[in-house]
Specification:
This protein has 402 residues and is an alpha/beta fold. The protein has a five-stranded parallel beta sheet, with helices on both faces. Strand 3, helix 11 and strand 4 form a beta-alpha-beta unit.
Length: 402
C-alpha cells in the first residue's frame, strides 16, 4: 500500500507523481486556530494583523510559499512569525501593514466595469473589493454590522434574492477582515457537512478519522473576543433542517458559538428562513424556539428596491450609459418586481454587443429584448416536456391500501 510522501528535490517525477501533492511548496499557510492561540498574547494591533493575514491568504488561495513571496520574506521567517510567540516580528508587521494599506485603498477605490482588483481575490469576493452602489439596502446592512461592534449579536438580514444583500455583506466582511470569517452555508446535508464548511472558512481541514465531537472544540478555539469575533453566514435559510421534526442542529451550533464564545453572527437569508422557522415551531414540539427567537435581531429588507436605488445600481455598473438608457434600465427593473438582476444582465449583454462602447438607449433595448426572448423560449421548452410519471409504492401498485 503506497503512501503520499514528501518528494525529494531530485526524485523522478514519473515514479510516483501523487506524492508531490504533499510537497512543502503546496502546503497552505498556518491554520487560524494556531494563529489565534499565538496572537492572544500580543497587542491588539498585532493580533488583528495576524488574523487579517490569515483571511487575506484564504481569499487569494495562497500557499505558504506564495504568501511569503507576497510579503517579500523567507518562508521560514513568515512561518515562525505566525507560530512562535517569542520571535522578533518587526519586519513581518511592517510588510503586513503595507499589504493592508494597499488592500484598504483597493476597497475604497471606484472600479471600472469589468475591471479586476489588483489582488485578484476568489471571484465571489473580488467584485466586492471596491466601492459598491450606495443603496438603502447596503446602508442597512452596514448599520447591522455596526450594531455588532458594541455588543455580541445574532442578526438576521431577511431579503429577496438579487437585491444586493450578498455583495453588501461581502464588502462589510472585507472591511472587517481582521476579525471576521465568512461562511457560505452548505446545502442541506449532514451535521458533518456544516462543520466541514465552518472549518473550511477558518482555513482548517479534517480527515475522516475525526469525529464531530473532536472538530467542534477546534472550531471554537478560533472564536472569541480577542480572536475571530464576527461570523457572516450567507444563504442562512440552509441552517434549517429539511425535516421539520428534526433537531435544528445548525441553528443550535450557531447559537452556542454566540453564547459561549461571545461573537456576533450576521445571517443573510431569504424570506424562506422566516417561513421555515414558523413551520419548525408548529411541527417540532421538542424544540424550544425561544432559545433562538429571543436572542436574534431581525433586519427586514424591502421587497422592492426604490427607483433611486435602482438608478444608483445602474450607474455603478454602467457609468458610461446615457441618461435615457439609465431610465430605461430602471423601468425594466421595476417591471421585474424591483429586482436588479434583470438590469445587470441587460447591462452585461448590451456592453458585449457594443464591443466596449458607450451604452445607448438602443443598445439597452436590444439587450432587454434578447433576454426576454430567451427567457420566453426557455419557458416554452419547459412546458413542452412530458410530465414525469413517478412509480407508486408497492401497496399502490398491487391495490393494497389497508
Amino acid at each position: 500500500m503506497s503512501t503520499t510522501r514528501y518528494a525529494a528535490s531530485n526524485a523522478d517525477p514519473d515514479a510516483s507523481p501523487e506524492r508531490y501533492l504533499a510537497s512543502a511548496s503546496l502546503r497552505g499557510p498556518v491554520p487560524l486556530s494556531i494563529i489565534c492561540r499565538v496572537s492572544s498574547v500580543l497587542p491588539a494591533a498585532q493580533r488583528e494583523a495576524m488574523i487579517w493575514l490569515s483571511g487575506f491568504a484564504r481569499l487569494r488561495e495562497l500557499t505558504g510559499e506564495s504568501l511569503a513571496a507576497e510579503l517579500r520574506m523567507p518562508g521560514d521567517e513568515v512561518r515562525e512569525a505566525l507560530t512562535n510567540p517569542a520571535c522578533d516580528r518587526e519586519l513581518f508587521f511592517i510588510r503586513v501593514s503595507e499589504q493592508r494599506a494597499r488592500f484598504d485603498e483597493e476597497l475604497a477605490r471606484q472600479r471600472r466595469p469589468g475591471e479586476q482588483s489588483c489582488f485578484s481575490l476568489v471571484p465571489a469576493f473580488d467584485d466586492a473589493l471596491c466601492q459598491i452602489a450606495d443603496t438603502s439596502i447596503a446602508r442597512k446592512i452596514g448599520n447591522a454590522v455596526s450594531m455588532c461592534s458594541t455588543k455580541p449579536q445574532i442578526i438576521e438580514i431577511i431579503g429577496k434574492t438579487r437585491i444586493g444583500k450578498s455583495i453588501a455583506g461581502r464588502r462589510q466582511f472585507l472591511a472587517n477582515l481582521h476579525r471576521a470569517a465568512w461562511l457560505n452555508c452548505p446545502k442541506h446535508g449532514t451535521e458533518r457537512d456544516f462543520l466541514t464548511g465552518l472549518a473550511g472558512c477558518l482555513g482548517m481541514s479534517f480527515g475522516s478519522a475525526f469525529k464531530n465531537s473532536q472538530i467542534m472544540p477546534k472550531i471554537g478555539a478560533c472564536f472569541g473576543r480577542n480572536r475571530v469575533n464576527l461570523l457572516f453566514i450567507d444563504e442562512g435559510q440552509r441552517l434549517l433542517p429539511v425535516e421539520t421534526r428534526a433537531e435544528p442542529r445548525r441553528l443550535e451550533t450557531v447559537r452556542d458559538l454566540w453564547e459561549q464564545s461571545g461573537i456576533s453572527v450576521v445571517i443573510l437569508s431569504t424570506p424562506q428562513m422566516s417561513a421555515g422557522l414558523a413551520e419548525l415551531m408548529d411541527e417540532n414540539p421538542r424544540w424550544a424556539p425561544g432559545q433562538w427567537i429571543g436572542r436574534r435581531q431581525v433586519f427586514d429588507l424591502p421587497d422592492m428596491m426604490t427607483a433611486e436605488d435602482l438608478a444608483a445600481v445602474a450607474m455603478h455598473h454602467a457609468p458610461d450609459a446615457t441618461p435615457d438608457a439609465i431610465e430605461q434600465l430602471v423601468l425594466h427593473a421595476q417591471a421585474s418586481e424591483g429586482l436588479c438582476g434583470a438590469m445587470v444582465r441587460a447591462i452585461e449583454r448590451a456592453r458585449f454587443r457594443t464591443a466596449g462602447g458607450p451604452l445607448t438607449l438602443d443598445a439597452v433595448r436590444d439587450a432587454q429584448r434578447l433576454n426576454e426572448r430567451n427567457e420566453a423560449a426557455g419557458k416554452v421548452v419547459a412546458l413542452s416536456r412530458p410530465p414525469v410519471r413517478r412509480k407508486g409504492s408497492a401497496r399502490q401498485r398491487y391495490g393494497k391500501t389497508g
